[in-house]
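input
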Amino acid sequence: MNTADTAWILVSTAMVALMIPGVGLFYAGMVRKKNVVSMITLSVVSALIAGVIWVLYGYSLGFSGDVSGFIGDFAKILLNNVSIDSGNGIPEMLFMLFQMMFAGVTLAILTSGFAERIRLSSFIVLGVLWLTFVYIPFAHWLWGGGWLSRIGSLDFAGGMVVHVSSGFGALALALVVGKRYGYGEHSIEPNNIPLTLVGGALLWFGWFGFNGGSALHADRIAVNAIAVTFIASCFAGLSWMVMSWLKGKPGSLGIASGIIAGLASITPAAGFVGTEGAIIIGIIAGIICFIALDFRIRKGIDESLDAWAIHGIGGAFGSLAVGFLADPSIGGYSGVIYGNSGLFVSQIIAVVVTIIYAFAVTFAIAKIVNYAIPLRVSAEEEYVGLDISQHGEVGYV
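output
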């Protein structure tokens, strides 16, 4: 066991854990004040669901053994044989905990797709099924020795496993659940932009552990991951700001969204690209995610808090960018600009597969759950707000 590596991943795990309530605060500021408690609670419950699933069977299915390249086995169910003393430089128990936080963050991001209209009981059932049949397979395919990793696909810290899965999953859920009452007929404004900015700040901070910790060592790759994470987020925030300025005024919410778009886009590439690659990814991410959000609004799709436009599109773009920009002097892999087109082909396959699988399976799960237990609250409950109808509480007096 390397004590320096262990200390760094302990800190990174705590930073990623902080991102879970960060998502809740980020989302809570963008909904109406009658749903603030609901959004924060959904993120907290996401952590609870992920924690229980990960201990019972999630970690085992994701990271132990292999069944035909698709899923792991039950060798480490209930964390059997997961050591606190040994592992690849760090205790396996710590690696398990680090990965658990990723699952919690991903499920929290997914709540964007049905904000202000989901039953808590239905969400719990949906969350269990979604982690089991969407997130865990992705984690195994790309990080646990599954088939996508075998064909050479790379995902340093979760561009596909986390962001594509939650972004396109949120889009599927929005289509199944349907629009909020009054959406498109009258303005539905954020209730507290400063709250969203605080949540965004927590995400920005936690992302250094998210990407830097994914090196799994306190080494040069971790340093590079943190550096390019900040660089890409800065350039993305600025490019989004310019895009919004061209259409009107550069709102703070848009700038924060641009920063998150840059973070999501650099995530799959953080251990494989250098400064130049981070700048390119950041600039383009701010532009294409802005365009995606504008497209979503024009089409009248009520994917309320834009996980699809920011996380889904950003994660997909960043994953493809790895195939172009991977620098062999950073992570040992070469992209197209260094004469290797094979990696780009592998990235295309992985992105297409994750998009289709995440959307289709999430759509199917949502339909099944909705048939058994209605996903959506009643019209009266939605009118009153989920804070009162689901929790018996109010966010603001």
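quick obs: The domain at 3-391 is CATH 1.10.3430.10 (Ammonium transporter fold).
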